[in-house]
């Protein structure tokens, strides 16, 4: 690590490995962008059909869906890790054992999940003030059981680093879900229609992913390949991941449950709007991280530790620059973006966006360590930071929501996220990288943060000097003009500051040129380039 800890942290892209990593990331960008746009346009549509109260109920029910999925104890993440390692050595017999053992487990888990869910139905719905939703709740339990199986098959494509197939399937399933959402809501079925649509989409996803898997891996077979020892190994790895997933639930969902319990269902809708817009901000940075687990699993199987270090440095650097820019611009323009998206009725959600953006952004900065740690078989770093998050977030959110309302819950979440991310970085550097976190922090994070603050102040100064620009946000149709003007100030100021502070250099320019050239060639000959990368 010592030879990699230079003050400038300049690392070039890494040949064939970079081509596969960038290709997978490009496909993930395509898939996530589609999902982003889908959620962006569906949210106001669903709100208009359900109303604020029923939308709050649907938000809470979707949280329950995610909660029940945690019963797999992290086995889903183990699939990516183990299949990636076995695929590196072309061990298809072991891959078949992984898939069949997982299918057997998820079948039993689905039955158990439905049984447990029905047992706790009454007190659970009463706790969060949900009435007349028993039928919806049961359908959601069924969809959870089926969704886990489809997600298991989909994770195989992640493990073999075929993100082209994975995202193609996810886009197809998303289209089916959107069509179903519109059909059921226009027919007047409300949240029950959304639940049935989720179940139908889950069943179609299982069929589609299974058929595609048979085509991509001809040796794939569901013959009796149960391996209890392998399953125990996967659980040993996955349990640590499941703790992290629990932390994500606590962090990104429990605050809404607290808001519901303390302030009521209507407040959940306003809080969800703020959280959802902030989550959109994280989309692109998280896409850049999404290919790290299978990529570093492959490097770990090849014992190429130096390339893992270099991957960490270069991804961390570019993630930091992109994330800080997104957070700074969102904080400055939260009100305008909310008004453009949903109109003036949700203006009160803007302050929630500003508070959550900081915590969500810090969480993304720690994501590189989390993903690489999981990829190299060291998920305990993320697990330990998640334990801190799981303790601090509900305590802070509950205390602050009583004093400051919904903004208090957002503040508690942001504080907990920031503490957990810093602890994760400390553990990762101390126990794996073997270098100083302070050196990396100065080399990667300080200058983008300073540049983002100054660029945000430049936009504020522009508003002060030209108040007519701020006035544009009063009319929803004119908001895009204001955002364009702010972007014209923010982006050049941010880039100039990064260059002036020596965060970017000629090596980064060469990396950018290589990326553009490779992407252009890929777009010109997508099939040929895909075959070259994935062969």
Quick overview of this protein structure:
The protein is mostly helical and 535 residues long. It contains 21 helices and no strands.
Walk me through what this model shows:
This protein is an all-alpha fold and 535 residues long. It has two domains: 2-434, no CATH class; 449-528, no CATH class. The protein contains 21 helices and no strands. Helix 8 (228-263) runs parallel beside helix 15. The radius of gyration is 23 Å and the shape is globular. Residues 1-8 have low confidence and may be disordered.
Average pLDDT score: 81
Task: Sketch the major β-sheet.
Answer: none
Beta-strand percentage?
A: under 5%
Strand-pairing-aware structural class: mainly alpha
Spell the H/E element sequence.
Answer: HHHHHHHHHHHHHHHHHHHHH
Number of separate domains? 2
The DSSP helix count reads 21
**Separation of the first and last Cα atoms:** 32 Å
Low-confidence stretches: 1-8
The shape is globular
Name the helicity range: over 70%
Total strand segments: 0
Radius of gyration: 23 Å
List the helices and strands and how they pair.
Layout: H1 15-69, H2 75-88, H3 92-119, H4 121-127, H5 134-159, H6 163-186, H7 190-216, H8 228-263, H9 265-281, H10 283-289, H11 292-301, H12 305-342, H13 350-365, H14 367-375, H15 380-404, H16 406-433, H17 437-465, H18 467-471, H19 479-500, H20 506-524, H21 526-534
Helix pairs in contact: 1-5, 1-6, 1-8, 1-9, 1-10, 1-20, 2-3, 2-5, 2-8, 2-11, 3-5, 5-6, 5-7, 6-7, 8-9, 8-15, 8-16, 9-12, 9-13, 10-12, 11-14, 12-13, 12-17, 12-19, 13-16, 14-16, 15-16, 17-19, 20-21
């Amino acid at each position: 690590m010592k030879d990699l800890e230079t003050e400038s942290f300049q690392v070039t892209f890494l040949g064939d490995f970079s081509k596969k990593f960038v290709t997978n990331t490009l496909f993930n960008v395509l898939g996530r962008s589609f999902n982003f746009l889908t959620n962006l346009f569906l949210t106001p549509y669903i709100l208009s059909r359900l109303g604020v109260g029923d939308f709050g109920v649907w938000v809470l029910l979707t949280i329950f869906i995610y909660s029940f999925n945690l019963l797999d104890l992290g086995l889903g993440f183990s699939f990516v890790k183990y299949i990636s390692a076995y695929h590196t050595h072309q061990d298809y017999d072991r891959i078949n054992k992984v898939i069949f053992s997982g299918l057997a487990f998820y079948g039993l888990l689905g039955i158990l999940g439905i049984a447990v869910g029905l047992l706790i139905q009454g007190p659970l719905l009463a706790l969060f003030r949900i009435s007349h939703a028993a039928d919806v709740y049961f359908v959601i339990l069924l969809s959870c059981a089926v969704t886990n199986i489809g997600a298991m098959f989909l994770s195989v494509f992640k493990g073999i680093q075929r993100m082209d197939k994975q995202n193609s399937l996810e886009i197809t399933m998303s289209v089916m879900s959107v069509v179903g959402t519109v059909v059921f809501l226009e027919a007047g079925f409300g949240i029950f229609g959304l639940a049935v649509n989720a179940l139908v989409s889950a069943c179609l996803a299982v069929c589609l992913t299974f058929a595609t898997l048979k085509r991509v891996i001809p040796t794939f077979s569901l013959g009796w390949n149960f391996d209890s020892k392998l399953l125990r190994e996967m659980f040993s790895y996955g349990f640590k991941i499941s703790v992290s997933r629990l932390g994500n639930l606590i962090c990104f969902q429990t605050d809404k449950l607290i808001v519901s319990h303390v302030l009521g269902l209507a407040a959940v809708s306003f809080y969800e709007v703020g959280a959802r817009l902030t989550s959109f901000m994280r989309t692109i940075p998280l896409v850049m991280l999404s290919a790290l687990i299978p990529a570093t699993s492959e490097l770990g199987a090849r014992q190429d530790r130096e390339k893992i270090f270099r991957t960490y440095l270069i991804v961390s650097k570019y993630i930091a620059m992109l994330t800080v820019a997104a957070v700074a611009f969102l904080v400055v323009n939260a009100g305008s973006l909310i008004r453009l998206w949903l109109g003036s009725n949700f203006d009160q959600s803007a302050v929630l966006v500003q508070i959550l953006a900081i915590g969500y952004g810090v969480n993304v900065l720690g994501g590189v360590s989390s993903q690489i740690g999981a990829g190299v078989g060291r998920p305990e770093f993320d697990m330990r930071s998640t334990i801190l998050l799981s303790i601090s977030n509900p305590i802070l959110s509950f205390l602050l929501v009583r004093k400051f309302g919904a903004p208090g819950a957002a503040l508690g979440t942001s504080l907990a996220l920031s503490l957990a991310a810093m602890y994760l970085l400390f553990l990762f550097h101390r126990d794996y990288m073997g270098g100083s976190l302070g050196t990396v922090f100065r080399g990667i994070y300080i200058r983008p943060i300073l540049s983002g603050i100054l660029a945000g102040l430049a936009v504020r100064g522009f508003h002060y000097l030209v108040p007519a620009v701020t006035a544009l946000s009063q009319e929803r149709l004119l908001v895009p003009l204001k955002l364009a003007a702010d972007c014209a100030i923010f982006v050049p100021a941010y880039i100039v500051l990064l260059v002036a502070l020596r965060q970017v250099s000629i090596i980064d320019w060469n990396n950018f040129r290589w990326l553009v050239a490779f992407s252009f060639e890929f777009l010109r000959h997508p099939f040929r380039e895909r075959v070259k990368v994935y062969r």
